[in-house]
Structures are given as C-alpha cells and as structure tokens.
Design a protein that fits this description.
Blueprint (H helix, E strand, L loop, with lengths): L3 E7 L4 E7 L2 E7 L7 H17 L8 E8 L5 H12 L5 E6 L13 E8 L2
Parallel strand pairs: 4-5
Antiparallel strand pairs: 1-2, 2-3, 3-6, 4-6
Length: 121
C-alpha cells in the first residue's frame, strides 16, 4: 500500500479535512460564512476548498468530483452560478443532496457544505 497522508485533522470531530492517497486528494467538510445567506455560504465553502487545495499544491482545476450538501436542495441554481464563475467550463462531476445538518445554529446556521476529490497525478 502506498503512503496516505492526513492533514487538517480535527480530534474533537474525529476526522481529517484532507487525505492524500496515491494520485487523489479527498477534501471534506468545506464550509464558510455560516449564518449568512446561501450565496455567501456557497462562496465561503469554495473559498475554504481553495485554501485546503493550496496546502497540497493544487487549485480548482484539479477537482474531479464534488458532493454538495444543502439544507434546501432548491438552492442548486445559486451553486451552479458560483460553479460557472469559478471553474470556467472545467466542471467536476458532482451530485447534490439535501440534509438536515447536525450543526449548531439550527435552520439559520449551516446551509451548504461541500466535499471534493482532486487529482494530483
């Protein structure tokens, strides 16, 4: 088995924010601007993803897959607008899911989160 590197580890939550395994980088729990509007939270999550990718020498061009989690799935068009602005036509495969986040702040708290897989080969 090749080397697996875990970083951005949160002991309280028992998870790694970034896991490098072979040619792939798995980035989890990207959130930002919690408590603000859905547009601001989506942009904040992408800003968080970009920050994490930079730590392993990558950028959005390396993202090949995303899981996008919404409190209200009908906000997909807001996310699609942000994706069009940030990916310039080099879109990753993705899926969108609705969930009741187990996060402080209740319904006015976390509205959007994304997880991503990037290729560094």
């Amino acid at each position: 088995m090749g080397h697996i590197r875990r970083s951005d580890v949160n002991e309280d939550w028992a998870h790694a924010g970034i896991v490098e395994a072979g040619d792939f980088v798995f980035v989890s729990y990207c959130v930002g601007n919690v408590g603000q509007s859905i547009d601001e939270q989506i942009n904040g999550a992408f800003d968080h993803l970009i920050e994490r990718l930079k730590t392993v020498g990558l950028d959005l061009d390396a993202v090949v897959q995303m899981d996008c989690l919404f409190r209200d799935i009908w906000n997909i068009p807001v996310m699609e607008k942000v994706i069009k602005e940030r990916f310039s036509g080099k879109y990753p495969a993705r899926k969108s899911l609705q969930t009741e986040f187990a996060h402080r702040g209740g319904q006015e708290g976390l509205l959007f989160q994304l997880d991503a897989v990037a290729f560094k080969g």
